[in-house]
Design a protein that fits this description.
The longest helix has 18 residues, at 320-337. The chain has helices at residues 31-34, 80-87, 91-99, 112-121, 140-148, 167-176, 186-189, 196-206, 224-229, 236-241, 257-266, 279-288, 305-315, 320-337; strands spanning 5-6, 18-20, 26-28, 37-42, 74-75, 124-130, 154-157, 182-184, 212-215, 247-250, 270-273, 294-295. It has one domain (5-337): Alpha-Beta Barrel (TIM Barrel), CATH 3.20.20.140. The relative contact order is 0.15. The protein has 14 helices and twelve strands. The strands form four sheets. It has a five-stranded parallel sheet with strand order 8-9-10-11-12. The chain has a three-stranded parallel sheet with strand order 4-6-7.
Length: 347
């Protein structure tokens, strides 16, 4: 039985899967035993609204995660976002506000060199990097594609906001520039995922044969207006209408993971990405869902990659076959089977 409470993220080194190396970094203790990993949910720094562009190719001396490596108690039995908010109320909101006006601060450390450094620490071979774009202001998808060009270990999933004029041409351009998936986030789109504008966007996206990751649901402390945008029932219309799109439910529905399980049973095109889920929830998910449709994610840089891994190592209860499917095999198969179609994307 492993403890689930720690002084901070660095103290995860008390678990047998981690250690502090000679450089003082938290790393996997036996990477060759764990094997390679694919992170199916990460980001780079966001420039929102009026912020100047970030230098996403710059190496920062230290990554400043939203959930700090030091100074915040870790409770693995809590959803990770709730864990942070209970210890440092308002921290994430303050960081979002900062990213609206400046390219300084924590988000300036969320760069290509920094994610690659942490990936090496955790034996992560590839990371799917998700952009988020609002209807106006800075456009992160283009910045991400530029920053990740030539980086084989980073797989870009773009955002296409249907409220921004010219979204059809922008979608086509993103595909031509290397996008390998779509991130749909109701908070940044200002609409639910069953809105006619989103359905129209998905209809066009379907022609490319590439996967879609939905941000799903919310935790118990999310503001009410955000809860309205991300209710679990708002995703089913797309899951049902587009059986040829492989949909990934990001965060596996957070507090509403039972609904995510229901969708995975009902629709063969649904995968669950489990970042943030506590070990007990993960056990329930793994006991209920076909293991070939489970994906690992970290939500870096909101959280250190080790935090998500710790929950997985405990939640899989020593099942080596499940561990390999969750950490690598399923993602590798999904990415390998999802190549951009040459079909016309004309309206």
């Amino acid at each position: 039985m492993y403890t689930h409470k720690f002084k901070d993220c660095r103290s995860l080194s008390e678990l047998p899967w981690f250690k502090i190396n000679d450089a003082g970094r938290l790393v996997l203790a036996e990477p060759e035993k764990v094997g390679p990993i694919i992170d199916f949910h990460s980001h780079l720094g966001f420039a929102i609204f009026f912020s100047p562009p970030l230098d996403l190719r710059r190496r920062a001396p230290e990554t400043l995660h939203n959930f700090p490596m030091r100074g915040v108690e870790v409770d693995l039995d809590l959803e990770s976002g709730l864990n942070l908010e209970l210890n440092q109320p308002g921290r994430v909101v303050k960081q979002y506000i900062q990213s609206m006006f400046t390219n300084k601060g924590d988000q300036a450390t969320h760069t290509v060199p920094n994610i690659k450094e942490e990936m090496a620490d955790m034996n992560i071979e590839r990371a799917i990097v998700m952009a988020i774009d609002f209807p106006f202001g800075a456009q992160n998808s283009e910045a991400y594609l530029d920053a990740m060009r030539g980086e084989d270990s980073l797989v870009p999933f773009v955002a296409v906001n249907p409220l921004r004029p010219g979204w059809e041409e922008r979608m086509d351009r993103h595909i031509a520039n290397g996008a390998r998936g779509l991130k749909v986030h109701p908070y940044s789109e200002f609409m639910t995922s069953d809105h006619p504008f989103v359905i129209r966007m998905l209809r066009r996206w379907e022609r490319y044969g590439l996967p879609v990751l939905f941000h799903t649901a919310f935790n118990s402390i999310a503001p009410g207006f955000l809860q309205l945008l991300a209710r679990m029932e708002t995703y089913e219309k797309a899951l049902r209408r587009f059986p040829n799109i492989k949909f990934v439910l990001g965060h596996a529905g957070m507090d509403f993971f039972e609904k995510a399980i229901e969708y995975a049973h009902k629709y063969d095109n649904v995968y669950l990405e489990i970042d943030g889920q506590p070990p007990a929830n993960l056990e329930r998910i793994c006991d209920s869902v076909d293991h070939s449709r489970l994906l690992f994610g970290t939500d870096w840089p909101f959280f250190p990659m080790a935090l998500a891994l710790a929950k997985v190592f405990i939640g899989v209860r020593g099942d080596e076959s499940l561990t390999r499917k969750l950490l690598y095999d399923n993602a590798a198969e999904l990415l390998g089977s999802s190549q951009p179609s040459s079909a016309s994307a004309s309206a």
